[in-house]
Every structure is written in C-alpha cells, then in structure tokens.
Amino acid sequence: MIADEQGVIIEWNHALEKINEIPKEQALGMTVWDIQSQVMLSENRSPGNLDMFRSHLQTAVQTGQSPFLGRTYETAIQIKSGERKIIQQTSFPIKTEKGYRIGAIIRDVTERKQVEEKLRESEEHYRLLFENSPIGIYRTTPAGDILAANPALVRMLGYSTAGELFTRNLEQGDAVSTYSRALFKERVEREGRITGLEAEWHRHDGTPIFVRENAQVVRDESGAVLYYEGTIEDITERKQAEDKLRKLSRAVEQSPTSIVITDVQGNIEYVNPKFSQVTGYSMEEVLGQNPRFLKSDYTTREEYKKMWETITSGNIWQGEFLNKKKDGGTYWEIATIAPVFSDDGKITNFLAMKENITEQRQAENRLQLRESYLTAIIENQPGLVWLKDKDSRFLTVNTAFALSCGRTTPEEVAGKTDLEVWPTELAQKYKADDVSLMSGKKPTSFEEPIFDQGQMKWFETFKTPVFDEAGNIIGTAG
Predict the structure, then answer these.
(1) Cα angle at 410 between 408 and 416, to 5 degrees?
(2) How are beta strands 9-11 and 72-78 bridged, if at all?
(3) How many CA atoms lie within 13 A of 101 on its CB side?
(4) DSSP conformational letter for 145
(5) Pairwise CA distance, residues 297 & 392, whole Å
(6) Of 411, 400, 395, nearest to 475 (Cα)?
(7) Residue 453 to residue 400: CA distance in whole angstroms
(8) Class of residue 166 by CB neighbours under 10 A (exposed 0-12, middle 13-18, buried 19+)
(9) Which residues of 309-330 are buried (b: 16+ CB within 10 A; e: fewer)?
(10) Can you give the pLDDT of all 478 residues of the chain as single tens digits?
(11) DSSP 261-310
(12) Cα(459)–Cα(449) distance, rounded to whole angstroms?
C-alpha cells in the first residue's frame, strides 16, 4: 500500500484486498484513516483514537516523522465479514517534492499467531502436567545424565530437590538394579518406544521400590539421538499386594485341607487340588454346581437348613459331614464355612475349609470298639479288676471291685488313690506293691488280704506293669 502526501491511497495490491476484504477500486481514493476507521476493532473505534491516528498520519506525510514509521508492529483488525485478523505492518516514508508519501508492507499473520498461541497453550498444559502429575516424568541424555525430573519423580526417589537428582546418572547403577541400562538403550533406540517395563529401583537412601517405566527416544532431523524421555510409576504397593496374593494363592493351592469357594447362591466358583484328591472330582467337573451333590443321607435336612441360616446371617458354621466320592465311596470331613464380605459389608461369597477325618473317625471307632471289648472283659471277670496310672490313681475298675470297696459303680472309684478307697494300712501296702512292681518291670502274683464289702478275705492277686509303645511304664493292672 502507498498513500500520497494528503494520505490518499494510490496503490493497493491484491494481497491487501484479501486481507482487508476491500477491493482495489474501492480503496483507491480513500484516505488511510478512512480505511483504518473501517477495520479498527469496535472496542477501539472511539473518536479520540481516530483523531490520534489521523494526527500521526498527517505529521508523517508532512515531515516524514511519526511514532509508527520505521518499525514493525502487530495489531488486530476486524473486516467486513466480522472476522478478526492479526496483521503485521511495517510503514516507511517516501520523500517527494510536495512532502512525504507513506508506504506500508502488511502481512496477515493470523494463522501464525494462532499456531503460536496453541503452542503456548500446549507448552503451558505440558508444564502443568509435568509439575502436577502424580507419575514421575524424566528426560535423560543417551549417556544417562538426568536433564529433567518432575516433582513426583524427585519425591519418588527420595530427594529434596530436582537439583540433587541431576547429580545422578542412571548408567552408574545406583538407581536401577534389575535390568541393564545398556540393554534398555539398545531396545529403546531399536524400537523407538518401550512400554510397561517393570523393574526394581533404589531410592536415595537405598530402599528398593518397584516401578513401571514407559520411555521413548527423541531424535533430531538427521536421526541422531537427542535424549530419552519417559514416565515412572511407583508400583511398590501393587507388587507387594501381588506378592501377598501370590503367597496366599500358593497356600490355598498347597493346603492340606479342602478349600471350596461358592457364590452367594452356593454355586461353586473354586476348589483347590486337595478337594479333587479327596473327592475324585476335577475343578472343571464341579464349577457352577452346588456342593449338595456330595452329600450322603447321613446329614439331615434340618442340619443343612441350620447351616445355611447360620452362614447367610453372617456367622461361621462348623460341623461334620459324611460325603460321597466320585467313585461311590464315602468319607468323613470336618468343615468350617464362613461368609466373605465386601468393603460395604455385603456377603459376596462363602468359604469352606474342610479336613478329611475319615482315618480319624475310623481310629475313634476302633478305639471305642476296643474300649467296649475291654469293658466287657473287665466286667465279666469273676474277680476284682483294676487299671492304675503311674501315680497309682485308678483309671478304671470293674463293678465287682467297686462293690468290694463300698462303692456302687466303677465311676465312683475312677480318679481316686488307694488311700481314698482302702483302710490306711492296706492302702500303703498296695502302694508299696505298685512301686516294687514298676521298679522290677515284671508281672508278679501272690496271695493277700482284701476287704470285700466290709469283710476281710484272702485273694490270689496277679499284677503286671503297663508299657507304652516306647517301652516306658505308664501304670499297673491287676
């Protein structure tokens, strides 16, 4: 654009037509201040501003001097369509015989300014993210020197300031202990990016932390590596929880007791290997089934109902079952069934821990049978029969013995000593006999006087020491 000595426009090119949306034929003959009044922003279009612009321009065409001449400045304009633009303008004087003409080079820099603003906003967003991210963010040289570290990374590694961290070098091995930085460099430069790399790092005080790292390589236009940048997430708590869960899982898998987990309807969601070993059913066979398929007719419907009411009310139930195996055999188990609660207190599952007590029950039955046989043998002996512990305290006697010492039943004698049963003189003799018997460790027989229901009678007595499995004397029998 060129304006003559009166400020009238005498040159207006096609580029200005596009910028101001004013055709050349319309612009020619208009004054610069006329154009300025049309494109000036509405908020700046006051009489005072227009008068000031006209005054500066008149001074420029008369003297070649004005504040806006000889410099480049940017300003906002608003064209006829309402669109706002940013223009860059450089004005200069052109001397003539009549005064000065004014030339101006005008560029539309709206798009560039928008890009700059977006870049500024992007940089501001990155800065806010960098400063406030709960995840550590870093930038390092290919040699491992730390160029940048956000506050989260500084705290994570136990430093007070980023400046302290900048003295460290990842290649020195004081930060990373479970993978080679040389291997890291080779991989990130080959692949361009690494995601989900987990490793054990060391804090400033030497304590270990587990981290998850994402990294990428940044290169220049020639392809040379400028730096590495990435993020570090502290996953120590997660790794500890995983380790705890892994130990718990192994304990469950290797438990010597059967473990069953069901949903709130009682349908099986999990069984451990011991369950399969005891019942003969694999996990795949029982998933989704109710454990009732194991039951025999031994446990009554009322007992099952009581069990269900107990656990659904949030309490623990304990009891014994006689269940059926896959092959049709039966087995005894003692079970503890407990509800599992969510954080809000709702029952989400039921956990059953069951121990196979078949051999124990069989041993108890054999023991009861032996006791029955022993009781029958003792009771049916024609004489007096007793069994004492090592301290000469009666463990059991037959009814004849109880009657002879003035009692009615064997239970009245059990737990008593000779001194509590017989006259003192006889009791002391019997005690001495027991001591002599246990020291000699051999059976003996002799005749001796015994009060039998108040009368002194002579009995032929047979006594023997009683041994445990290791051969130690644990009492006497007679």
Answers:
(1) 105
(2) unpaired
(3) 13
(4) B
(5) 47
(6) 395
(7) 10
(8) middle
(9) ebbeeeeebeebbbbbeeeeee
(10) 888 888 899 999 999 888 888 899 998 988 887 888 888 776 666 677 777 777 877 788 778 787 778 788 888 888 888 888 898 988 888 888 888 888 888 898 888 888 888 888 888 887 888 888 899 999 988 888 888 899 999 999 888 888 888 877 766 555 555 567 778 888 889 999 999 888 888 888 888 899 999 999 999 989 999 999 999 999 999 999 999 999 989 999 999 999 999 999 999 999 999 999 999 999 999 999 999 888 888 888 888 899 999 999 999 999 998 999 999 999 999 999 999 999 999 999 999 999 998 888 888 888 888 888 888 888 888 889 999 999 999 999 999 999 988 899 999 999 999 999 888 888 898 899 889 888 887 888 888 888 777 788 888 999 999 998 888 999 999 9
(11) EE-TT--EEEE-HHHHHHHS--HHHHTT--GGGGB-SSS-HHHHHHHHHH
(12) 6
Cα–Cα distance, 143 to 182 (Å, whole number)? 10
Contacts of 238 (CB under 8 A, 6+ apart): 210
For the CA atoms of 204, 208, 210, 213, the dihedral, rounded to the nearest 10 degrees, stands at 40
- C-alpha–C-alpha distance, residues 423 and 426, integer Å: 6
In whole angstroms, what separates CA 307 from the centre of its chain?
Answer: 33
What type of residue is 351? L
Give the 3-state secondary structure of residue 220: coil
Residue-level length of the chain: 478
Nearest to residue 112, comparing CAs of 86, 82, 79, 90? 86
Three-state SS at 204 = coil
Distance between CA 197 and CA 190 in Å, rounded? Answer: 15
At residue 375, the pLDDT reads 81
Token pair of 42, please?
């509405």
Note if the pTM is more than 0.85. no
What would you report as the CA-atom Rg of the chain, rounded to the nearest whole angstrom?
Answer: 51
**What Å distances lie between residue 147 and 62, 119, 180, 248, CA to CA?**
58, 22, 20, 43
CA distances (Å), 160 to each of 10, 112, 164, 398, 414, in order? 68, 41, 7, 86, 78
Beta bridge partners of 138: 149, 230
What's the angle, vertex CA 470, arms to CA 468 and CA 471, rounded to 5?
70
